[in-house]
Queue: 2 jobs
Job 1
Amino acid sequence: MREVRTIPLITGRCRHPQRMTIRNGSWQPADFPAMAMLIVHPDEGPILFDTGYDPAFLAATRPFPERLYRWATPIRLEPGQDAASQCAKRGFDPAGIRRLILSHFHADHIAGTHRFANARIHCARSGLEAASSSGRFSGTRRGILRGLIPADFGDRARFFEDTPTVALPPDLHPFEHGADLLGDGSLLAVELPGHCPGHWGLVLRDKRWGLHFLVADAAWSLDAIRRNMPPPAMTTALLGHTGRARGTLDALHRLWRRNPEIRLTPCHCAERAGEAGGA
Ligand SMILES: [Zn+2]
């Protein structure tokens, strides 16, 4: 696999009872960072994995029923903290970013999509179809805000399901195959079913960390992977499929036990956000 560089971006935070994210957790609200990952590829330049919160999220959750989303999970987004502003600050003009990779269609992962108007968008067809066909109320309950999907999204989308697959490095067992997004083996999208329709992670070889698996929302924290501790069924059943989500978490737990040196990064993990300079 060709090596790439990664730069974690903390693109806002939400507040949520911990109990909703891990079984037997506390009912006290806890802060959950929303991380996107800037990937610098030797030929393609900057590529963004997820886009995090964005001021567009605040606009989309102003009316009812979308406002219910903001009431249930209040967010904090400082000026300049959105992914597009952070890319620009690092010298990467958002208009020049040629590819986005979206793990899934929850609003905290796609809100910034509209800021990257020239990017091809790698995502799951099943996720786009589920998000596009959900009603305003039922979508809001499940973390989907259709208004955040740009009008030209379909023209720019390249679906994981249509991308040729290759074998993953054997160290990643029990995960076996990935969609080779660039055709050079550097960015391999791996389906992580259960969290919601069309939920995928990304495997890459990181200059700093070696094999690095961005697991998106397959777990809310590294601690959950280490303890194989899923969210309560009321959360997984509302968003996706409890049995499949637990199967995915169990596979990540087995991977971690076999190969604890492989870096795993959940999007909302406070431990990883702390390492990125934003505990
Ligand atoms: Zn999610």
Note: The pocket of zinc ion is lined by residues 104, 106, 143, 195-196, 217 (CB under 6 Å).
Job 2
Amino acid sequence: MHEMSLMGGVFELIEQTLSQHEVERVLQVKLRVGELTNAQPDALQMAFEAYSKDTICEGADLLVERVPVLGRCRDCHHEFNVETMFFLCPNCQNTGIEIIQGEELLLESLEVE
Ligand SMILES: [Zn+2]
């Protein structure tokens, strides 16, 4: 499952962050998930539960914020929401598009006690 490996990366970040602080329990984990990752919320939740078992993250709430795909035209530098997998600048019809948002899976915040 694709989401398991994504979540593996998230937990490495969580462990790095927590190792610098004294934390008893993690209450909430917030992620920003780009649409291009194709990560499904249900599968992310399952992966989160699997990774958090027997750690201080166990029982924490997982919040997933979906991030739309943003492209930028290499020609006219127009920025736009990419609605389909057909990458075309709506301004000048150029197909040289750079993806500037939507491929990421980021740890947005951790709520701890
Ligand atoms: Zn353009």
Note: Helices lie at 2-19, 41-52.
